[in-house]
Amino acid sequence: MSLPIVDIKEAAVTTKGLTPAAVVSVILGIARGLVTLGLALTVIFVTVVPFAKDRLDMEVDASWFTLGTNMTIPVRFYVDDDAHHINAPSIGVDRAELQDVSGLLRFAAQPGSFMFTNAGFLIGLFLCAIWGLEQLHRVFGTLRNGQPFVHANARRLRHVAAAVIAGEVLGALMTAYNQFYAKAHFTATGLLFDWSFNVDFFAIVLALIILAIAEVFAAGTRLDEDQALTI
User: Fold this and answer.
1) What does the alpha-carbon distance between residue 123 and residue 134 come to, in Å, rounded to a whole number?
2) pLDDT tens, 54-92?
3) What percent of the chain shows pLDDT beyond 90?
4) What is the mean pLDDT of residues 41-53?
5) Quick one: pLDDT at residue 228?
6) Phi and psi of 99, rounded to 5°?
7) Are 109 and 60 in contact, with CB atoms under 8 Å apart?
8) Mean pLDDT across the stretch 169-186?
């Protein structure tokens, strides 16, 4: 009669291991590993590839680091109305304007300070992501163990919110830097390059929501401790 009891216990353990918290914890661990790999590759590319005699014949779809002969950066520009007249005769619009247009600019790779500055931004973004994912992974670890209301979780969630805000600000700074670089160095017939510093409003709202959840965890921890003392 002991064998069925053992089987039931094993099934319970298996079922517990497949809880949503466990699945999310595994996904967060994988994401953290991939981001760490990206950080390691970035450091290698920045420290090794620029000084190699024969550079790899590849293109990089960002200005983070240089692997080959071309690179692509985000740009923001306006269209000169005098050079490009836009209208819509079918609906009676004689003149229309393109404003605040964004896109990607591809050009020959530029080693030196431009590359290293962008690499610095990227490394900062990777570090923010690793830090935030690590804190979130630990929170879900306590959920998986059935003990979410611990003092550390409120602090960890505040760290996650800080990582989201820091990552968003760094990303906005990186985009603005590349847009300013394009404005300072490139000209195009009929186009006026511009730059702006734009922080995603929804990312800030997400950080505030995480901070609110952190306070919920802090209150839950206090209630849990008070209940334990009462018992």
Assistant:
1) 16
2) 555 555 555 455 555 678 889 998 887 777 788 888 888
3) 32
4) 70
5) 61
6) -125, 145
7) yes
8) 94
Cα–Cα nearest to 115, from 127, 38, 107: 107
188: tokens are 């195009």
Backbone phi and psi for residue 192, each to the nearest 5 degrees, phi listed first: -120, 105
For tokens 């293109």, name the residue: 59
Residue 114's contacts (CB-CB under 8 Å, 6 or more residues apart) are: 63, 181
Whole-angstrom Cα distance, residue 69 to residue 58? 7
Could you tell me where the beta strands, DSSP code E, fall in the chain?
Answer: 59-60, 70-79, 86-88, 93-96, 101-108, 191-194
Single-letter amino acid code for the residue at 202 = F
Looking at residue 51, its amino acid is F
Report pTM. Answer: 0.76
Q: Looking at the DSSP assignment, which residues form a beta bridge with residue 189?
A: none
Q: At what angle do helices 20-48 and 113-144 cross, to 10 degrees?
A: 160
Q: Say if residues 39 and 130 touch (Cβ distance below 8 Å).
A: yes
- Name residue 85's amino acid: H
End-to-end CA distance of the chain: 37
Looking at the DSSP bridge assignments, the partners of residue 77 are: 101, 193
Degrees, nearest 5: CA angle 4-6-9: 110
User: CB atoms < 10 A from the CB of 25, how many?
Assistant: 20
Pairwise CA distance, residues 148 & 154, whole Å: 10
Q: What is the predicted pLDDT for the residue at 133?
A: 93
DSSP 62: S
